[in-house]
Specification:
The complex is a heterodimer of chains A (212) and B (96). Chain A has 212 residues and is mainly α. Chain A has six helices and no strands. With 96 residues, chain B is mostly helical. The chains are: A mainly alpha (212), B mainly alpha (96).
Chain lengths: 212, 96
């Protein structure tokens, strides 16, 4: 049994809730389509580089930290579930559950970044950065793998940090007591977060399961 | 917003939890298969699993299936243009 969401706060130029909702979801998906193309370009780069030297790619990928990468995958998958709970709880006017789920999402997202930071520290201590002295590989594929690893994981981390700021904003709106009528903001925030999750779901096998 | 529990509390929590469990299970299969020494078609299987996971997130979490035709078409456009990039570039590489 579903419950109708609370009466939304309308903003200019909209006079009807359904039109505002359609415009917000459409606008966000338009942005996500550009994000798909943005990340797609990097995945294309990965595909071409890997095809040119699959052996070197596998050797390079074998040094990626599987345990930390897997922990981060679980953290991000879990955060997608908690943010979905938050979004639905907001619509159902179940304020306590919404607040708990938003805080859980913030903790999981921050934990992801902390684990990533720890992983970067480990990578650097093993000289796994293509331009530093002592980089352990000479194969072109391995060099390209680690170039791609740093580039794409940093870009993803930036996206996640932006997502965390938007999720934190939901908590702020809750404190102001306006989150219920602004459930559409929660919905589009959730859409962005899920795309960042999907990108990581794709990165996990490409970066951590390769060469196993 | 009200503080009391809404009538569909089970749905609000249970459905995302079930999808999370499915995502987790699929990830475990992908990891398990990747660790089998000498197993064939590892990259293909892991990418196929990612496709299922992404479909779950798109359908159950992002509610793309229930979205309007305009929204669904917008979501598709990014993938369609991306497929052009892959098709044309790989066609060029394959015919050199």
């Amino acid at each position: 049994m579903s419950v109708a969401p609370p009466t939304p706060m309308l903003v200019e130029p909209f006079e009807q809730a359904d039109r505002q909702h359609e415009a917000m979801v459409f606008g966000l998906w338009l942005f996500l389509a550009t994000e798909i193309l943005f990340f797609g370009g990097f995945f294309f780069l990965y595909a071409v580089a890997r095809l040119q030297d699959p052996g070197g790619f596998a050797v390079g990928g074998h040094k990626a930290n599987l345990l930390l990468g897997t922990i981060n995958t679980v953290l991000l998958m879990s955060s997608s579930a908690t943010l979905t709970v938050a979004e639905r709880a907001i619509k159902a006017e179940w304020r306590r559950a919404a607040r708990v789920a938003i805080v859980a999402t913030l903790i999981l997202g921050t934990a992801f970044l902390a684990v990533k930071g720890f992983e970067y520290h480990e990578d650097l201590s093993e000289h796994l950065f293509p331009t530093v002295p002592g980089f352990p590989f000479t194969a072109v594929g391995a060099i390209r793998f680690w170039s791609f690893y740093w580039l794409i994981t940093l870009i993803h981390a930036v996206h996640l940090t932006i997502g965390l700021a938007f999720v934190a904003r939901l908590l702020w709106l809750d404190r102001l007591g306006t989150l219920g009528p602004r459930w559409m903001v929660a919905e589009v925030t959730t859409l962005y977060w899920h795309l960042v999750d999907i990108v990581w779901l794709l990165l996990w096998p490409l970066l951590y399961l390769i060469g196993r | 917003m009200a503080e009391d529990r809404p009538p569909d509390a089970r749905t609000i929590v249970l459905k995302p939890l079930l999808v999370w469990a499915a995502l987790f299970g699929l990830g475990a299969i992908s990891l398990g298969y990747a660790l089998v020494p000498g197993a064939p078609l590892k990259p293909l299987l892991s990418l196929a699993i990612v496709l299922v996971q992404a479909s779950l997130v798109l359908g159950a979490f992002m509610k793309l299936g229930k979205a309007s035709a305009l929204v669904r078409m917008t979501a598709l456009i990014g993938v369609v243009w991306l497929s052009f990039l892959f098709l044309m570039a790989f066609a060029d590489l394959a015919t050199r």
